[in-house]
Amino acid sequence: xxxxxxxxxxxxxxxxxxxxxxxxxxxxxxxxxxxxxxxxxxxxxxxxxxxxxxxxxxxxxxxxxxxxxxxxxxxxxxxxxxxxxxxxxxxxxxxxxxxxxxxxxxxxxxxxxxxxxxxxxxxxxxxxxxxxxxxxxxxxxxxxxxx
Amino acid sequence: xxxxxxxxxxxxxxxxxxxxxxxxxxxxxxxxxxxxxxxxxxxxxxxxxxxxxxxxxxxxxxxxxxxxxxxxxxxxxxxxxxxxxxxxxxxxxxxxxxxxxxxxxxxxxxxxxxxxxxxxxxxxxxxxxxxxxxxxxxxxxx
Lengths: 147, 142
Prior knowledge:
heterodimer, A: 147 residues, mainly alpha, Globin-like, 8 helices, B: 142 residues, 7 helices
């Protein structure tokens, strides 16, 4: 459960409405694969990941990035019960995808950088702090069913 | 992790672009670190950490100046950062996990102020550079 004050919720809502999911999603996943190349281990079927340009323009990366960020945004609607909201996805990531939860933290931090890039000064330290809190909550929820 | 020639070029050109703003960005990165990761404040009980604090600005400038020096000596980071490495190991003893937190907030600060320059390749190079600096600063811990 992530506790946000009224002010914090307002900060999230105002930015959330302006987030272009397809753009942010593709850029977030793409940057994860560029900055932390070992994360490419999960995406052998995605085709050409041989250079930053290839990764950022890869259609499968963009599509999957959009899927992931959509899921994160849905999480924002369930702050009172993140563990419940992400239970099925947690099982999937453990049992089928075999993703080390450390990767959720990496992705979350890359997303913060992408939001900073898009929103500039609007992405104040206070707004960043709220997103870090929420993304940490989502990462924990996604790791919760691991065994 | 080794800095490639391309990484060094990316870091140098980013630092040139930052110009005289390095100090200001250092302060902002610290403020972001304290806001997002409150445990980091435990190292500054003697500071006023409120928004606009002169102490945070001054300390941010100190951090930025050290990074500027590191950028100028990327071929010998252990040499350039030796005194700071001693300081962190024997006096400050900041837990190693915190270097990642500050490094992340430095990236966020740069992304905010230089969105066009902060390409994926530059993002990667900067992350590697901050990681290399952090490694040197914690190298004498034990």
